[in-house]
Amino acid sequence: MAPPDAATADIAPPQVSHDHGPSSPPAAAATADMQRPKYSIMDTAALAQVLTEHRIKLHPHVENIQRHYILHGMPLSVAEIDWSRIANLPKAVGPLLAAHFGLVTTVTQTNRSADGYTTKLLVKLPSGSLVETVIMRYDRHQRDVDGDDTASIVSTTQGKPRTTVCLSSQVGCKMGCSFCATGTMGFTANLTAAEIIEQLVHAHRVQHVDHVVFMGMGEPGQNIPAVFAAIQTMTNRRILGLAPRNICVSTVGVLPLMHQLLDECPGVNLALSLHAPTQEIRNEIVPSAKVYPLDALMAAVDAYIARNKRILIEYILIKDVNCSVPAAHELGKLLAPRARGVIVNLIPYNPTETGRQYVPPTHDDVAEFETICRQEYGLRTTVRRTMGQDIDGACGQLVVKEQRKGRAAKKLTAAAAAAAAAASPSSCSDRPAVDVEDLAVAPAAAPDTFERKIGRVIKRRSSPGRDDTPAAADDAARDGDSGKDFVRDWLPVGLAALAGVLVTRVVWKLATRRRR
Ligand code: SF4
After folding, report:
1. Structural domain of residue 500, as residue ranges?
2. I need a surface site. Which of 78, 100, 420, 479 has the fewest CB within 10 A?
3. Residues contacting ligand 1 via CB (< 6 Å)
4. What is the sign of the dihedral through the CA atoms of 100, 101, 104 and 106?
5. pLDDT band of 157, cuts 50, 70, 90
6. Residue 209 vs residues 117, 169, 199, 255, 500: alpha-carbon distances, Å
7. Is 207 helix (H, G, I), strand (E, B) or coil?
8. Which ipTM did the prediction report?
9. What is the pLDDT of residues 431-486, one digit of tens each?
10. 130 shares its domain with 277
11. Hey, whose CA ends up nearest to atom 7 of ligand 1?
12. Residue whose CA is closest, atom 4 of ligand 1?
């Protein structure tokens, strides 16, 4: 059926429903900057609903709109785009898009590493939360630049140069891995599919991206609907057209994700963050291991390999925790039966602020671990380069730092409020509650109190004029009290001194008379 003539359709604000919690567009409209568009241009559901409300057929317009936006350089404002160049698009759609769509996230910080290979974007969501997006560049010259000769560099120098973007899927994470900065934040919210795709859009604006990994903040397995929807948009040939083999989803071992990925997103790669060769060590550093035990994970790995040939096994190497020689043998024994289908990516621990005193392995530790896996168990291995350490490259580091700055500023404000309350004549119950750390800052109140006292003295001496403010009345009352105190304290002393003088005088007169 041909679309109705939509040229006269009104462009009243549409009501689009989403079910992705606090970061959904309606919540954004209520809380975020009112200048921002209400809906993301990459939000397929919102686009579909708005077009439906205006009786405009969805196919092929939704895909055409998103593709047109991408082909035109993904500007921050969709109003810059000439929508009339899309064939057969009703004229009313352009004003609709300009009025209600755009990018709902913004980049608030862009940090580039000194070597130029890593760029970290701090992305602000409509809810105000921050997530990280990392762009990593690999090219044939890296070996010469960094002088490294690890296995990963050998593999990196093969093939074409490429740019990979690492996306976040959640604000914070509830999995609590002990070596991860994001794990210390706790969980705040799931990202919507549009918020995930917009990270890719922002990265594309910095540099053309050809590979995507879901290894940023959050566990994709805890936000499966949005992650799968984002991947489906990315791999849609009529929209972003990324090859599924260029996308990798990393999970710490959430079984539903491992089982569903190939059904929902065929050809997409899976990485299992194993990090330990035994259930005991895994329990220690990956708390979710208790829910998803090692034997169930290996069964899921085998099922995945049967359909997609190979899986990436990620293994963080932490000295004195999981990178000993026995641990290498345990890992070898665990993976040897499926050696043809696994690639083990060894990741030297990147020091981060987690509250744990973990130590990175030495170069020799890494080499020995890798040699055992390769030579004794026939595993294919790579060693991940440490990238972007000078810009807090590890997952969640930058956001944790920003949050800490925000908390410090809040505490200073609270401490200042506490100090003001302490200096005021109001009762204790009027003072804001403060915690122990606030109390440590609270002595800042002392100079203020001291200045008030000094101020009263100066005022009494230099300004006899009347002050009717409540504070002045309070000061005057306290001044009157201090006068009474003086009389009470010094009157007995004065009387005693007077009595002493009188007694001395009487004694002296009596002595004088006797001598005569
Ligand atoms: S490593 Fe991944 S799953 Fe574990 S806490 Fe960090 S973000 Fe979450």
Report:
1. 475-516
2. 479
3. 173, 175-177, 180, 182-183, 217-219, 252, 395
4. negative
5. very low
6. 13, 18, 11, 29, 100
7. coil
8. 0.99
9. 222 222 222 222 233 333 323 432 332 233 333 333 333 333 333 334 444 444 45
10. yes
11. 218
12. 177
Active site residues: 132, 395
Say whether both 167 and 310 belong to one domain. yes
Dist. CA 240 → ligand 1 center (Å) = 27
- Residue ending a domain, among 438, 462, 486, is 462
Reading the block at residue 258, the tokens are: 């491992």
Residues 51 and 128 in one domain: no
- Centre of ligand 1 to C-alpha 442, Å, is 37
Domain C-terminal end among 102, 130, 151: 102
Atom 3 (ligand 1) nearest CA: 219
Cα–Cα distance measured from residue 413 to residue 431, given in angstroms and rounded to the nearest whole number: 13
Q: Each residue of 441-454: pLDDT tens digit? A: 222 333 333 234 32
Rounded to the nearest whole angstrom, what is the distance from the C-alpha of residue 254 to the centroid of ligand 1? 11
Q: Give the per-residue pLDDT at 231.
A: 98
Please tell me the distance between residue 226's alpha carbon and the centre of ligand 1 in angstroms: 17
Residues 94 and 18: beta-carbon distance below 8 Å: no
Ligand 1 closest atom vs CA 250: 2
- Could you tell me which of 172, 192, 202, 205 has the C-alpha nearest to residue 233? 192
Structure confidence at residue 489 (pLDDT): 58
Best mutation site among 219, 250, 297 for ligand 1 pocket (most ligand atoms within 8 Å of CB): 219
Model confidence at 103: pLDDT above 50: yes
Asked if residue 234 belongs to a domain, the reply is yes
How many structural domains does the chain have? 4
Rounded Cα gap, residues 380 and 397, in angstroms: 30
The Cα–Cα gap between 470 and 459 comes to 15
Report the alpha-carbon distance of residue 81 to residue 69 in Å, rounded.
Answer: 7
